[in-house]
Each structure stands twice: as C-alpha cells, then as structure tokens.
Amino acid sequence: MTAAPKKPEFDASFRDQLDDLLEWRRDVRRFRTDPVPDEIIEHALQVACNGPSVGNCQPWRYVLVDNKAMRKAVRENFQTANAEALNDYSGEQAGLYASLKLAGLDQAPVHLAAFADTKNEAGYGLGAKTMPETKAYSVVAAIQCIWLVLRAQGVGMGWLSILDPDAVKKTLEVPDDWTFVGYFCIGYPEEEHHRPELERFGWQDQLDADKFIQRK
C-alpha cells in the first residue's frame, strides 16, 4: 500500500510569496518571441488538472494552436471584433481604446485555447444539473491555476476575449458541444509590472476590494 504524501506546511514566508505571486500575475500583452520550453507548458496544464471542478467532472479541454493558418484566422477574427468594439466608444475614450495593445498574437510563441466540454459524463451531473454554467466556471478556475504556475516560472500570459467564439470553434475544428472559454497568448514578457496595464495606460483604475464585499 502506498503511503500517503506528507502534508505540506505553508509557512509565513510561503504565504507572503503567494500574495506577491497574485499581485504580480498580470495580463501580459507584450511578449518576447523567445520560445517557451514545452515542459513548462505541459507542467502548467498538468497542474491545472488539480483545479476544482463541479462534481469533479474535469470539463477542461485545451488546444495548443501551432498551425499557422489557424493562428492567422484567429488574428483576423480579433481584428474584426476589435474594429467592431471600437465603434462602441467615442471621443477621447475611442482614441484611448485605439491606442491600447489588446493582444499579443504576433509575438507570443504559444497560443492556447480553452474550452469546456459541456456534455462530458464525468461527475454524473452532480452540481451541474442546477447550474450547468459551472462547467465553464470550472475551466476558468483551472485557467487561473495555469496563469499562476506560468508566472512562477517567469512566463507571462494574456487573455484575449475580443473574439467571435463561434468563429474560434470553427477555426480550431473542435466539437460542437464544447463551449469556448478563452484564447491565451503565452510567452516571456518584455517587462514585468505589479499594476495592470489597463490601469497604467489610463483605461480603468484598480478599485479598492472593499467596494466588492457585502456583509448581511
């Protein structure tokens, strides 16, 4: 019989470093083109499979996009969606939006798409029958694990959400019953910051946590 692993001790030093990791986990848009070793990406994806999922259904499905034609199609998808989004703004805000770097598609050496398999039978529907959206939430929780593991390795990650989800699914030729969750650019960042880029460039200040907490 295999002995149970020793329970880890998360001391004050570790807790401080964890706080730092969360603060310095930024949404990266500016990447160096240096390749990221395959083992770093594979390790992050494997660790993320320890993330929480509703009913332990493990609905995450990942696609590493190396195909140049598919990457080109995703880039065109972004350009179309970004142009449409710009039309929602006017005046100074439109000018600021147009100046923002919202994707690292051209520089990032790794492209990762994440989906939720909404029809998988693992977990037998526990928790997902009343709230089927929790399968996608489970994938989001796994994505956060990937983000932190990569950041701890000095690798940056950026979430690209300015896309047509159905077009992404068609481009990547995934099953119809997979729900698109996000497209991610991954690579070594050109520079590192503890403040969000959208705050640094004047789009949206970081709000105080007290604004989001209620006691009843």
Major sheet size, sense and barrel closure: 4 strands, antiparallel
Give the SSE order as H and E letters. Answer: HHEHHEHEHEH
Share of helical residues: 25-40%
Point out poorly predicted stretches.
none
Distance between the termini: 48 Å
Spatial order of the strands forming the largest sheet: 1-2-4-3
Which term fits the overall shape? globular
Which structural class do the helices and strands define? alpha+beta
Q: Mean pLDDT, as a whole number?
A: 91
How many distinct beta strands?
4
User: What Rg, in angstroms, do the CA atoms define?
Assistant: 19 Å
User: In percent, how much strand structure appears in the residues?
Assistant: 5-15%
Continuous helix count: 7
